[in-house]
Amino acid sequence: KETNAQLIIDAGQKHFGATICKSCGMIYTASNPEDEMQHVQYHHRFLEGIKYTGWKKERVVAEFWDGKIVLVLPRDPAYALRKVEDVQELADHELGFQQVVPKCPNKTKTFLFVSDEKKVVGCLVAEPIKQAFRLLSEPSGPESSNSKECPRAWQCSNVPEPAVCGISRIWVFRLQRRKRIARRLVDTVRNCFMFGCFLSTNEIAFSDPTPDGKLFATKYCNT
Ligand code: ACO
Ligand code: ZN
């Protein structure tokens, strides 16, 4: 690997340096055959995974000028559940997570944001919960020295607060971020999770947020 990196010098090649693929979002070195091969593999898997062909019976719960949100429930047809699995696998791969096993698989609700290009570019997994622990602001004092080793160890309050809906996963395709897709997914969950009411931000909780997730959640809950 190291020798490869050293071999990449700008000799005026067309494909010098790092490239970001505009379709799958992978960053790779086009002049490195190994990298290029890995990209080709990922590229196909990714595009296959997010491809949305349209379903006969789809539950559209929100529509926008640039896409729609489709809700998938545990008893839905196999093709819908398979799509949810594929998308979640891609999200997990990016997050470096092991597969999450939902506590109550028959109560999970998955919301997919489908772009007008017929691709699943966002995914949110929600499940009913009874309580949550408030995330305290930035760790301070001696604890903060640990933050490098354990970036996910945010400090939580130890006082449980009642909550209704847990967001165990939220993911937006890298090249479609900062277009309010996550915001619209959470808005839709608040509207659809419990029939007939709009959940307050106090009634939803993000589980084990990543740094991105925390930035988003902090912003979302304050506005
Ligand atoms: N840095 C700083 N602020 C951010 C970020 C960020 N990375 N992401 C969102 N925000 C804030 C911004 O204020 C933004 O508004 P603005 O663009 O007008 O400034 C606001 O949140 C709303 O952002 P959205 O556009 O709705 O968020 P987006 O669609 O980009 O999705 C998400 C955010 C889901 C966190 C995305 O970055 C992502 O998929 N990241 C990788 C996966 C991940 O870490 N997911 C969270 C895991 S935690 C969990 O699942 C419970
Ligand atoms: Zn690609």
How is this structure best described in words?
By secondary structure, the chain is an alpha+beta fold. Helix content is 30%, strand content 26%. The protein has five helices and ten strands. The protein has helices at 2-7, 33-50, 78-95, 181-192, 211-222; strands spanning 18-20, 27-29, 59-64, 67-72, 109-115, 120-128, 131-135, 156-162, 165-172, 204-206. The strands form three sheets. The chain has a six-stranded mixed β-sheet, sandwiched between helices. The N and C termini lie far apart (46 Å). The structure holds acetyl coenzyme *A and zinc ion. Zinc ion is lined by residues 21, 23-24, 26, 39, 43.
Write the layout of secondary structure elements.
Elements: H1 2-7, E1 18-20, E2 27-29, H2 33-50, E3 59-64, E4 67-72, H3 78-95, E5 109-115, E6 120-128, E7 131-135, E8 156-162, E9 165-172, H4 181-192, E10 204-206, H5 211-222
Parallel strand pairs: 9-10
Antiparallel strand pairs: 1-2, 3-4, 4-5, 5-6, 6-9, 7-8
The structure holds acetyl coenzyme *A and zinc ion.
Summarize the structure.
By secondary structure, the protein is of the alpha+beta class. It has helices spanning 2-7, 33-50, 78-95, 181-192, 211-222; strands spanning 18-20, 27-29, 59-64, 67-72, 109-115, 120-128, 131-135, 156-162, 165-172, 204-206. The structure holds acetyl coenzyme *A and zinc ion.
